[in-house]
Amino acid sequence: MSIPALDLSADPIDLTAALVDIASVSRDETTIADAVERALREQLTGFEVIRHGNCVLARTDRGKATRVILAGHLDTVPIVDNVPSRRTVTDEEGDVLHGCGTVDMKSGDAVFLHLAATLDEPAHDLTLIFYDCEEIAAEFNGLGTIERELPDWLHGDVAILGEPTAGLIEAGCQGTLRVRFTATGTRAHSARAWMGDNAIHKLGGLLTTLAAYRPRRVDIDGCEYREGLSAVGIRGGVAGNVIPDEVYVDVNFRFAPDRSVEQAFDHVREVFAAELSAGLVTAEVTDSASGALPGLAHPAAAALVAAADGKFRAKYGWTDVSRFSALGIPAVNLGPGDPSLAHRVDERVPVEQITQVADILRTYLSS
Amino acid sequence: MSIPALDLSADPIDLTAALVDIASVSRDETTIADAVERALREQLTGFEVIRHGNCVLARTDRGKATRVILAGHLDTVPIVDNVPSRRTVTDEEGDVLHGCGTVDMKSGDAVFLHLAATLDEPAHDLTLIFYDCEEIAAEFNGLGTIERELPDWLHGDVAILGEPTAGLIEAGCQGTLRVRFTATGTRAHSARAWMGDNAIHKLGGLLTTLAAYRPRRVDIDGCEYREGLSAVGIRGGVAGNVIPDEVYVDVNFRFAPDRSVEQAFDHVREVFAAELSAGLVTAEVTDSASGALPGLAHPAAAALVAAADGKFRAKYGWTDVSRFSALGIPAVNLGPGDPSLAHRVDERVPVEQITQVADILRTYLSS
């Protein structure tokens, strides 16, 4: 199969369409990686380009004071009759590009590719990272592979992920903690309920506490974070005529990045102190990931915010930015497209957002 | 395979052992039914004997004022190295017969068979019903088959089931009602919990109410019934990062036989009136079976109680006695063996209980 040609100097809207038209469902990214690699090798000047699996990496080494990392994944979720791309202009939605990956995240990739090829004199050294397998289990994530196998490629002062944010800078990310609360009791036939000790009956206070909990809203570096404490699963019961001897509730705490995972667990234990000290339930952490401080106070990040006219907001979900944050690199998401349209059959992006993100980044990277 | 010989005039302890030694796991009762049928035909006088599938039925028609039904199932739960029977005498437990069915309920069957063969002049007409498939799903129950296909065999004034009661009369049975309470909400990503409406959080009040509920104890015909209201299952949740939009709790109400199923459901709705009227949950009946009044006020039943020196108690669980109660026939359980040892590998009966039950019934049936 011949390698598709990509014109990096074309309008990033057209470049987005060209990328969408190269199907690249997770674990099937060879063709798009070939196309990106060939375009980078043929159309960039002053960049070192390497290929690693289906990751394609490029960087300058001009001795600038700061290095900016631009990172985007090349894969998409499965295609559902939404490739190739198509463009429509309607009164309701204006000029829109439709197709799998238009939002998540080939429009972001297109902006990065276009700028790398067309910026005359970047003010920063640049590192481009295009990676595979972001949409599937974390163990396959190409950025994780780079972190383990080519760690020196992740040095930088600011990292920008082109994940969809509708053109707004989203900074940092919240942490997540999952705690399993388990109540135990004694089985008995339900016809003789008094012979048993019903585990499910012990959860009333915990659920009432959850319903009454008022999550914190906190400002960090000008970003407002909203925490959340939610039951995400509950399960107990043996049979329709048996007093259950065990039940669990999984509680997910999404916490602002001014708490560590440990502090987050301390907080959860405080919230349920009454149930825990009464011995009604036990608590066990089953999953956790630390948050990422927005890091917008860093000068290189502050310049990015200035280029975006000071518009930014907190990122609530967990994304690959936290990989950079864990390395001490301020990292933001910035890309075209409404994230709520990602992974949908009717995935589509207003083309003006592609232009807008390209303009913000051109300003930032040139100054 | 030859038909095993049973000596009905032998001591019912030995007859129990002989019955235990004929393996008869549910759906494999042909051999034991053959043996019982042959013994009844050869050793009873004045009885009509019929075979219906693996049920064996016999009855007198002497024109007595009352008819007593003696009913027992021939099947057992699966054997686990506990057949053939063995008998031990120890200081701790005395004289004990071990084996699958010693409790549930070949000792009861043996008493009925022995009395039918050895009572010189019963004071009542007798109907004997030995049936199959009691230990498996209700649809296979041999007594249910008789009820549908040979209903005139279930006429009588009192029915005695030989289920294990440790030699005490257990009268009537409680009803059972299962109600599914469902709470609904709106899904959202748990990183943006405020966009959703958590169904699980709505159950705190319901579980608190359940834990605080004080079940009624009520005396009917001298039997004390103890009700119970118990969560027997709870389930909800979509994924570890999703606000759940649905959760249910299954609540089992075991109610005394002075309530109908409808009255029982009315009571459950009253208990959870706050949650129901607030729209936090909906309630749906998923299973029900009416209870059975003890019916000990009936003269033929009162004579049985007198024969047992006035000792009786309420039956809490649901058993086949309620099939008779539904037909308007007072019915009791009376059999040797501790019901808590039924279905166990170490199933065993103190042989004196076999003698005791035989004595009570001999007195009752002769007077």
From TrEMBL, chains A, B:
Keywords for the protein's UniProt record, in alphabetical order? Amino-acid biosynthesis, Cobalt, Diaminopimelate biosynthesis, Hydrolase, Lysine biosynthesis, Metal-binding, Zinc
Any single Pfam family the record assigns to this protein = Peptidase_M20
Q: Which reaction does it catalyse?
A: N-succinyl-(2S,6S)-2,6-diaminopimelate + H2O = (2S,6S)-2,6-diaminopimelate + succinate
Where does the Peptidase M20 dimerisation domain lie? Answer: 175-276
Among SUPFAM superfamilies, the record links this protein to: Bacterial exopeptidase dimerisation domain (SSF55031), Zn-dependent exopeptidases (SSF53187)
Q: What is its EC number?
A: 3.5.1.18
Q: Does the keyword DNA-binding apply?
A: no
Coiled-coil blocks: none
Question: Could you give a single Gene Ontology term from the biological process aspect?
Answer: lysine biosynthetic process via diaminopimelate
Keyword match Amino-acid biosynthesis? yes
> Which GO molecular function terms does the record list?
acetylornithine deacetylase activity; metal ion binding; succinyl-diaminopimelate desuccinylase activity
- What InterPro entries does the record tag this protein with? Bact_exopeptidase_dim_dom (IPR036264), Peptidase_M20 (IPR002933), Peptidase_M20_dimer (IPR011650), Peptidase_M20A (IPR050072), Succinyl-DAP_deSuclase_DapE (IPR010174)
Protein's pathway: Amino-acid biosynthesis; L-lysine biosynthesis via DAP pathway; LL-2,6-diaminopimelate from (S)-tetrahydrodipicolinate (succinylase route): step 3/3
Domain of life from the UniProt record: Bacteria
Cofactor(s) demanded: Zn(2+); Co(2+)
NCBIfam families in the cross-refs: dapE-gram_pos
Q: How does it assemble?
A: Homodimer.
According to UniProt, the name of this protein is Succinyl-diaminopimelate desuccinylase
Which organism does this sequence originate in?
Gordonia spumicola
